[in-house]
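Per reviewer request, we include the raw input and output of the structure prediction for the construct analysed in the revised manuscript.
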Amino acid sequence: MKKAILGLFALAAMAACTPVPQTAEEMRSVVKSGAFMSDFQSHKISRSYSAVASSIRQGTEKCFNRNIQTRSSYSPGPGMAPVMQVMNLYYSAKPRSTGSRMEVPVHRRNGNGKPVFGMEQQGIFYLIDVAPASGGTQIDLYGGKMGYGAMNKAVLSWARGGAIRCPDLV
């Protein structure tokens, strides 16, 4: 019985581990297949494709190419010394135009990017697709359910012609 329970636990733990997408196509596929905590949003913007693409290109080049260092401290238990954790996150985005479309894969690398427990620590964590649509421009956003709201809001603001303000990155 113990072995069966441990086996089920191991199977459940492995099922929760979705590999980090390495290409834009993988990101679309993972999100559209309903991966746990993933989110897809589609928006139509009443501006020309060229104006929207230009705004998003400017915003991503300014805001999604940066390094962030986070520090946190916690106590593992009563009477134990606090533990200080430092995490380095490296973000990079390179808009790519393909014909009449533009895609912006936003890459994130945690620390040195080396695998931890077999899982890649780098890859695409956010994707913006921009395409012309009748009467405006279609924007598809691929990301997660938690922590991506500020990024989605910023991208949509840029697309509507708003000021380039950088969101907090997750």
